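FAQ: What does a ligand-bound record look like?

Like this one, built around (2S)-2-hydroxybutanedioic acid:
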Amino acid sequence: MSRVVTEAHLVDGIAEALQFISHYHPADFITALSAAYESEESESARHAMRQILVNSRMAAIGKRPICQDTGSVNVFIEVGVQARTDWTRSLQEMVDEAARRAYAFEANPLRASIVADPLGARRNTRDNTPAMIQTELVAGDAVSVTVSAKGGGSENKTKFAVLNPSDSVADWVVETVSKLGAGWCPPGVIGLGVGGSVDKAMAMAKKVLNEPLDMAQLRARGAETAEEKLRLELYERINALGIGAQGLGGQTTVLDVKVASFPTHAASLPVALIPNCAATRHLHFTLSGEAPVFTPPDLSLWPDLGLGEAGGRRVDLDTLDQATLDGLEPGETLLLSGRLYTGRDAAHRRMVEMIDRGEDLPVDLKGRAIYYVGPVDAVGSEVIGPAGPTTSTRMDKFTPKLLAASGLKLMIGKAERGPQAIEAIREHGAAYLIAVGGAAYLVSKAIRSARPVAFEDLGMEAIYEIEVEDMPVTVAVDTQGRSVHLSGPARWRRDVPILA
Ligand SMILES: O=C(O)C[C@H](O)C(=O)O
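The answer part, i.e. the structure of the complex:
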């Protein structure tokens, strides 16, 4: 007779797994990323991958989050129909208890990113609940659990289509990825759910992202199924797009493409596409009567790349003038020192509402820089927790008004800017810089002081005044409106290889 799977096994296991994945990348991800780093020829992409690898190693040693976006909690539970459980609460209640406990863990608090009332006030629930759960009843007497922390930037780039049965899935995916931009923080993984119904396709795409990365082995042995053939074709074709790490142009955009399929209606070909970012985090365990045990990876897994020092021209944010701004070259690496402000989605919305009402902004942005970030809370002697950039594209619609009304001169974030924002940057002689998405712990080490100065009710979205020293960034849009996210990928795009 099988042994009892208790509530404590489930709740403790999920809570521990959430803590574990906040600071340990999956080993297969590091192996694949290290190989991509070794073979990358684009200098900017190599530099970005180096920072991601150094950050990952630092996070593993410091047991602090890889990325400031510690994700929404996604849990996939398969309950064996013969499993013996003593559960009395709903799965949602048990998983939420685990999430609450993991995200409030004193030694490594994680960022609460979930907002309630998505159509209304969007109030942060402050404990990162509720979790997203997929459940299945399967044969057997065990309970299988996969825990994943999914970043918002990559989730935002999800796409779905119902193709005609005669259409090419590969063509649709390549076309779609070519237009995704870099907000999903490549290099990462693309998950595809093909067939089923519309909801089934999306659920498959989400779940398949948790499968081990085995593209190197698949390329070596060759495809045996239609799904594997599609994976190989997409791996080659997506990487030939030249998007590269952080969209800077390079040879590796995806480390793997995972495909799940299911029978579908004769009239339909549903396809769901979900990217996973450079902060891919998930862990699987099985419960059959004992608490799960998680073994930390050995540090020899990571290439020893030192501290990933960036080098670059030093820029003093406290004496920023137009001549310095006009001298910035797209692609140039800078080390920023001085005072700047943080502000992301909710703070931008409020600031623009204040401008519309003719009110003064709560901070004086004239001649200053704003960093699009929502940091993790500090712990121990830290000044701030991991604090990497968020996707700037979401701030585009606020940018023209903010630049015009405040005299703001520099914006720091990640990924490309759209035409509207680039035009405003050019018009106001401003510039846009990027930090490496997914290198949050590393970036936080350049922050010397931090204090909230406005909108504290917004939690991690409050405005902070921070002081940085040698914060590494790259010029992404200069005062003339030239963008590295256009020039980089154009340079590294290759002809699509012909596959056998
Ligand atoms: O919320 C964040 O900090 C980042 C977000 O995941 C993003 O990539 O835009």
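Follow-up question: can I read anything off the structure? Yes, for example: The CA atoms of residues 103 and 110 lie 5 Å apart.
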